[in-house]
Amino acid sequence: MSDEIDGNPVVVMETSMGSIEIELWADRAPITVANFLRYVDNDLYNNLTFHRVIPGFMIQGGGYNSDFVEVSGYPAITNEADPSLENDRGTLAMARTNVVDSATSQFFINLVDNDFLNQTGRTPQQFGYAAFGEVVSGMDVVDQIATVETANRNQHQNVPVEPVVIESVTRR
C-alpha cells in the first residue's frame, strides 16, 4: 500500500475505538500539514484523547491526555484557511482560539458539512478554520466516537465520560 495519495502523505490514527486513515493535503495547506506531521513524527499525539465530542458537529483532539493534562505544543502557525478548503464531513481541521493564527496541536474532524467554519473573508470573524486533510478510511470509527457519553469536566464541556484515547498517529 502506498504511503501517499496523489503525492500527499497519509497518516493512520489508532484510537481506543479503531483506526482512522487520513490523507493530509500538503499540496493545498503545506504549513498546516508540516505542523501536524511534526507532532506525528515526534509521537506527541500518542496517548492523547478526543477531549471534546459534539454529535452533529465535530470531534476534537490533540490537546489533552486522559488525565486531562494539557500538552504543550510548538509555536502557533499561520492560518491557511481558504474558501477552497471547506470544512465538509470527514475533513480534518486545526482548532484555534479567536485569534486567527493561534493553532498549535489541537485538531478536529468534522462530522457534518460545517459551512460556518469556512473562510468567507479576511476579518478575524470571517477567517475560518484551516481544513487540511480528509478521512479516507475509518469514518465509521469517527461516527462511533461521536456517540460516546459526554459530561462537563472542570471548565470544559462535551468531554467523553470514558476517555477515547489516540493511541498513536503514524505515517502510512
Automatic annotation (TrEMBL):
Catalysis performed (reactions): [protein]-peptidylproline (omega=180) = [protein]-peptidylproline (omega=0)
Superkingdom per UniProt: Bacteria
Function description: PPIases accelerate the folding of proteins. It catalyzes the cis-trans isomerization of proline imidic peptide bonds in oligopeptides.
EC number annotated for this UniProt entry: 5.2.1.8
Stated family: Belongs to the cyclophilin-type PPIase family.
Domain annotation PPIase cyclophilin-type: ranges: 10-171
InterPro entries documented for this protein: Cyclophilin-like_dom_sf (IPR029000), Cyclophilin-type_PPIase (IPR024936), Cyclophilin-type_PPIase_CS (IPR020892), Cyclophilin-type_PPIase_dom (IPR002130), E_coli_cyclophilin_A-like (IPR044665)
Gene Ontology molecular function: any one: peptidyl-prolyl cis-trans isomerase activity
Top EC class, one word: isomerase
Keywords from the named record: Isomerase, Rotamase
BP GO terms, sorted: protein folding
Lineage: Bacteria, Pseudomonadati, Pseudomonadota, Gammaproteobacteria, Pseudomonadales
Protein name: Peptidyl-prolyl cis-trans isomerase
